[in-house]
Amino acid sequence: MDLVREIKVDTRKQLNDVIYDMNSTFYKRYVFRGHADDKYRLLPVLLREIPANMPNHDIFLREIKLLIKFFRECNNQGLKVPDIKKFRATYMSDYFDLGYGMNDDYYWPNNSIFELEALAQHYGLKTRFLDWTQDIRVALYFSCGKATDKSVDYCSIWAINMGYIQKRQEEQASQAIRLVGGLETEPKCVVERKLMDEIYDERIPLKFCVPAYCDNPNLNAQKGILSAWQYNMLSGISEKDPEILNDRIKFNTEVSRQFQKFLGGPADTSELTSLFTKYFSDNHNEEKKYEQYLSTPQSAHIDYLFYKIIFPNSISCDLKKQLQIEGYNTARLFPGYKGVADYLEENNFANH
Question: Structure pTM?
């Protein structure tokens, strides 16, 4: 199954032709990410640095501690942060527990902390999120980050079909709602309904976070979007055994068992393309849907899930000059005094 289409170019003109093509209406479904070294993997910083076979419980607890500290310090400095009631209710406590990051469901990253972790990622903390942009030239700017490093041979720009993923997720969510609605046993409460929905949730696990740009000058300038692979800890109840679902005690016991089993398992450090390969392998219906999508192009192009554009680092200096002429520079992408100062320093304006 073709998930990734690689496009390798050798000259600035060839690259500009590809970028021009990608700015067409067809590619409005995609978001982009620049890698200053083609050897970089589509893997969040947090997951690149953890020890082999580290259990999920330990990495989750590390994330929660960091996010609580980030939340408190931002709030103490008068900075706007997403409102997380559990974090406010335990504001001065030095006790940390996974329950702080859960909200009556078993997803990770949990929906209650998703926006906060995305914000922390954008400002440099090590999280399980990846940064993307709606603007391919912003991705190009970051892919030229090692223009003078002679040890880097190639750079790359990744593109992911966010439009296809979100469309399928909506269709999958509607299907899950119909399945739960057709069960013989009605959920007794809102929490139980959420658990039933989660057991039947087979949506593509990649979740995107589109920030409110009005609240964040950097994200607005970069047209930033963030993503994380969101694990469903109850996916192990795969058989959807009617006996379990219709017996409250067995149901709650099985939920608890699956939760503990997931926490004790090793953290998954697979890069994003590998996660998609495994997802399609485990969900043959989704694999067929994607193959059908490929066989009926939306335009003259084929909507692959990923595109990867590879170009030599030797043309990065010229590309950076081109981007500056087009207005893509440090001062623009990092609004504020620091961005302007860094822009002047980069270009050695003090000696001009």
Answer: 0.88
